[in-house]
Amino acid sequence: MSTRKASLTDKQAKNGTSKYVLERCASINEYYDIAFKVMLLGDSAVGKTCILVRFKDGAFLGGNFIATVGIDFRNKVVDVDNLKVKLQIWDTAGQERFRSVTHAYYRDAQALLLLYDITSKPSFDNIRAWLTEIKDYAQKDVVIMLLGNKSDMAAERVVKTEDGERLAKQYGVPFMETSAKTGVNVELAFLAVAKELKHRATQQPNEPKFKIHDYIESQKHRSGCCSLG
Ligand SMILES: Nc1nc2c(ncn2[C@@H]2O[C@H](COP(=O)(O)OP(=O)(O)OP(=O)(O)O)[C@@H](O)[C@H]2O)c(=O)[nH]1
């Protein structure tokens, strides 16, 4: 399956990345200690591809909107507590007609970033339906994060920050507003997930538990420009 927005193949995606990789691994120009699969979900046009491109390349895909066809992925290695954590990030098509394709990928994902667009009430209203899908298809212990994207579009906002916060609280998932355009909170969203997954995989009995909610609250609203440790 391929998309119009990216060129990597399904076959590459399945090469050695299905579960945690705890020994030091090397692929082309890319060293990592541990690998996780993260999936981007949400209605069409909420900004999933743009969030991924912002995180991976530090750029914004403006201009004409081209919907993703099916599913594709990109890798990024981040440093978490002196470990190289590879995130294999799956960008899914938000359009209903691709739903059966994307369902097949839920089970392998260790984390899901669920997006809505703060300028689109329907995309927010559909979050509950997305959470039902996640319950039906994803692993029980999957890390979920809710993101209200396009926070730069203040004049067009129709979903209040508090509404996003309330919904997230109701489902017990962390929440933040992001902008793929300005970069606000984009790196934080992925790094928080990377930290949570790394701690889950390497947690020692005497180590304090990583608290993703607390970490996000202490870091969010900063500009997306800077590296977070
Ligand atoms: N102003 C602004 N526009 C954004 C932002 N993120 C995405 N967009 C725009 O919103 C449109 C849709 O973005 P995409 O990233 O392609 O949306 P998607 O969720 O991947 O859509 P599907 O592939 O159909 O699922 C594009 O025109 C983007 O330029 C953002 O943070 N701010």
Describe this structure in words.
With 229 residues, this protein is of the alpha/beta class. A 6-stranded mixed sheet has the order 4-5-3-6-7-8, with helices on both faces. A two-stranded antiparallel ribbon has the order 1-2. It starts with 9 loop residues before the first helix and ends in a 10-residue tail after the last helix. The chain has 8 helices and 8 strands. It has one domain (34-223): 3-Layer(aba) Sandwich (Rossmann fold). Residues 1-25 and 222-229 have low confidence and may be disordered. Helix content is 33%, strand content 23%. It has helices spanning 10-14, 48-57, 99-106, 121-125, 127-137, 161-171, 186-202, 212-219, and strands spanning 25-27, 30-32, 34-42, 71-80, 83-92, 111-117, 143-149, 175-177. The protein is globular, with a radius of gyration of 17 Å. Bound molecules: guanosine-5'-triphosphate (GTP). The site of guanosine-5'-triphosphate (GTP) has 22 residues, from helix 2. It catalyses: GTP + H2O = GDP + phosphate + H(+). GO terms for molecular function: G protein activity; GTP binding; metal ion binding.
